Amino acid sequence: MSTKIATAGNAGPKVRSDCFVTLELKDSGGVQIDLKSKVKVLYGDSIVKLCSDVLAFYDIKNAHLQLEDSGALPLVIAARIEAAVKELITTDKEFLFPILDENIYSSEKEQFRFSRLYLPGNTPSMMLNAGIHHPNGIILDLEDSVAYAKKKEAQLLVRNALRGIDFYGAERMVRINQIPNGLDDLKYIVPNNVHLILVPKCEGAHQVIQLEEEISKIKKAFKVKHNIYLMPIIESALGVEKAFEIATSSENIVALAIGLEDYTADLGTKRTNEATESLYARTRMVNACKAAHIQAIDSVFSDVGDMDALRATIKVSKGLGFEGMGCIHPRQIKFIHESYAPEADEIDKAKKIVNAFIDATEKGLGVVSLGTKMIDPPVVKRAEKTIRLAINLGLISENWRKEFLNEQAG
Amino acid sequence: MSKLVKNAVGRMVPTEINGQEVIPFKGVGKHRPAGRKYAPPIPTAMDYPDDGNKVVASLKEALTKCGLKDGMTISTHHHLRDGDLVSNTIFDIAHEIGVKDLVWFPSASFPCHDPLIKYLEDGTINRIEGSMNGPLGKFVTQGKMKGTAVLRSHGGRVQAIQDGEVKIDIAVLAAPSSDPFGNANALNGPSACGVLGYATTDYLYAEKVIVVTDKLVDFPNLPMEIQGNYVDYVVVVDKIGIPEKIVSGTTQITKSPDRLLIAELTTQFLLESGILKDGCYMQAGAGGTSLAIGYFVHQLLKEKGWKSKVGFGGSTKYMVQMLEEGTMEHILDAQAFDLGAVASIAKNKNHHQFPVFNAYNYHSKGNITTMMDIMILGATEVDVHFNGNVVTHSDGYLLHGIGGWQNCLHAKNVILPIPLFRDRIPVIKDEVTTICGPGEMIDIIVTERGIAINPKRTDLIEKMKDSKLPIKTIQELKAEADAICGPSQKPNLSDEIVAAIKWVDGTVIDVVRKVIE
After folding, report:
1. Is the CA virtual torsion B15, B21, B27, B30 positive or negative?
2. What is the pLDDT of residues A136-164, one digit of tens each?
3. Do A41 and B425 touch (CB under 8 A)?
C-alpha cells in the first residue's frame, strides 16, 4: 500500500450537518475511532457504532479513523467514510441505507416543472430542508458546484441523499458532469431512485445516445424499471443550433433547459437582466422544444435578492413560451410558481376539459369531447394538472366543479 | 443536601437552596404570597450633601463607602449587554481588597462577563443569581461554582426583590448619563442604550445605590429614569461600555430560507386564526425569525389597513418602522435592541419608556403581558406536553437565561416559531431537559414541517380545521424529527444540583444537574 491516509468531507466554523473524515489504514492494532462532535452527548455512541460498521463492511481491521462532526446525519457520515475508504482500497461494494418509503414515488413526462432548485452535490446542510420549500424539482448537482477534487465524494453523498432524504414529493433530479465524464456519475444515481438527469453543455444527439446506452446498461444490471427522464441543458452556440436534434434524440427527453452563463460566455458577450443577447438562443430553443412536444425551461436568475427583477424576467420568459426556470435560492420558488401559474383563461379552458372528462367517464364513454372537438388523454391530464395547481395556489376552490356546473346551469 | 420533593410539573426539586428555604412549584397561579413588601432602610437627607454633589473619586471608594464586605449581594442591570465594562470592575475591586463570597445578581449576563470565572474559582464570588451563558454556563453545569445558581425571569427578579427573597446590598448601576445628584438616563452619552428599565427595582429596593457614568452632566439630567433621590454615590469613569456591543448597530431579519418559511407559516396562522386583527397588542423578540414575523405582520397590516394598538418592546428598528408607517400606534419599551430603536425613543412621542416592572411582576396589581394578543417566543426544547425549556441545551448544559420568557407566557396566545431540529438535535422531546414553562401556557408551535396547536386550545383547533396550513399533532412533529435525526441517547447527569429555575412566583419549577463528562 502506497497511500495509507485519506480524507473526505468538510469541517470548519461555518460547516453544518457535515463531517470531515481522516482515515489511516494500519497494519496492526485494531480499529481506533476518535470522534469530535458537537452532538456527541446525544449521538456519540451511535456515530461510533456506524463508523465501526462501515469499516467492518469493507473488511478493514486495522485503522485509525478521526471524525470531526458538525451534526451530520448517518447517511452523510457513511458517505464520507466510504469515500475515504475508496481512496485507499479498490472495491465496488456500496454501503447503502434502505430507500425511504416516502421517497418511492414516480415522476411523469408531462408534469409541471416550473421550478427546480439547484443544490450543490457536496453540501449536505442544504439538502435536508430543500423539500420543505416545495419546488417542483430538486437538482443534486455534481457539475459546476462541486470542486474537481470533491467529485468522487459528492457522487456517494448524492447517492445516499437520493435514497435517504425526503424531498416531499419534488421530482428527484441530478445534474451529472459533462459527457463523457458524466457517464461515470450514472452508476451512483441510476439505481438509486433518480427521476430525471440533467445533461450539461449538450451539443448533439450523439451525446444523448451515448448516455442512454449507459443508462440502459445500468438499469438492466440493477433491474430498474421506471423511466429515467432527461433534460439536456443547452449552453453553447453549437447546442442552440442543434436544439431540435437533441430534443428529438430520445423518448426520455422531457425538456430542454437553457444555461445562459455559459452561453453568453460562448458568444463572447455579457449576460444582462434584459437578456437581449440571448433572445435568439432562447426563442430558437423554445421553438425546437415545441416542435418536439417537450417543455422549454429557462435559465436560473442569479440575483437572489431582487424579486422584482425576477418577476419581470419570468413575465418575459413565460411570454416567449418557457414553462419553468431554475432556482438557486428557495425564496425564488414561490415567485416562480406564482408567475408561471396558469392565467384565468387557461384555468377556464382546463375546467371545461376536466368537466367534459368527468361527464364522459360518468356516462361510460371512451372518448372525451368538447363540443365537436375530440380531447386526447394527455390534454385531459394536463388540464387536470392545471386545475390541481390552481387549487394549490388558491386560485380556485376545491369545489370548483360544483360552482362551474351552477354557472353553466345559471 | 435538603430533601427533594416532586413539584406540580413532576420534577424533583429541593426545599432549600443556598441555605434558604424554597417552595416547590405548585401550579400556575396557585402560590399566593402574604405579608408586606420588603423595604430598604430609611435614609436621612441630612446624610447627603446639600449641594447635591454625590460624586466620589472612584468606584473603589464608592464601594468602600457602601461598606462592601464578605457575603454581600451586588446587583447590576444588563442594558449595556455585551458591551458592559462596569460589572467586571466591581469584582476586580472586591478581589483587590480581599472581599469573599459575594453574590452577583445581574438582570442578565453576557459573554463579556466570562472573565468573572476566575473570581468564581478563587471564592471572590460565591454564586451568580441570574442568567448563565457560554463558558459561564459550562462552568456552572460542570459543578464548579461554590453556591447554587438561581435563574429567574425578568419578572421573577422583581418578585424576588420585592418580597425580600433577595436583599440587594449594593446596586451598581451603569448609566449613560447622570448629573452629580444621581439623576440618570440612557438617552445621551457615548454609551446610550435607550432605556434603563431593568434598573428600576434595583434602585428602589437596594440598601445602597451607586450610579456609574461616563457622561456627567449638570443638574437636572432629564428625564430622570433613575431618580437621584435614591442614589448614594455617583462615580465618573472613562467608559462604561463599548458602544458597538451595547446595541447591535443593526438587528437583522433572518436570511435563512427555512426560518423565513417558519415566519411565513406563523404569520399566516395568526391571520387565519383571527389572532391578528385590527387593534391587536403584540410582542416579539429581536431574533431573526421574530423580526421576520414582525416584518410579514407589518406588510399584512398595511395590506388590510389595520394597525396594532400596542407593541411591547424590546424594540427594534423594524418595530419603529411600524410606528412610523402607521401600522403600530404605540411602542411600550423595556429595552432597545438596536440603534434605530434608541434614536426613536428620543424622537417619537409614541415610543414610550416602560419598565418591566409594569409588565412582568407577580407582586403587581396586574401586568400588561396578560393583555397581549400575540406573543412570539423561542425555546431550545419543547416536549409533547408543550412544556418549554429555554435555559439548557439537550446535552444538559446551561446556555441561556430565562429573560422575560416565563412572564410572557401569560399572554393570550403564545406562539413558538422554532425549527424542528438544529444540527441534528431534535427540538421536540418526550420530556424537556429542564422545564421553564408549563405546557398549559404554550399554545402554538410553528416549525418548518408543521404547526401543532395545544389540545387545550380547542377554540384554535376548531378555527383552523379547514386551513390548508400543515396542522399536525405535536406527536406527529416529534416522530418526523426523530425519523430524520435518529434515536438519541440521554446526557449523563449526576444527582448534584447546580442551578435552580424559579417560576414567576418564586417557587422552584425545576433544577439543573451537574453534567458528568
Report:
1. positive
2. 999 999 999 999 999 999 999 999 999 99
3. no
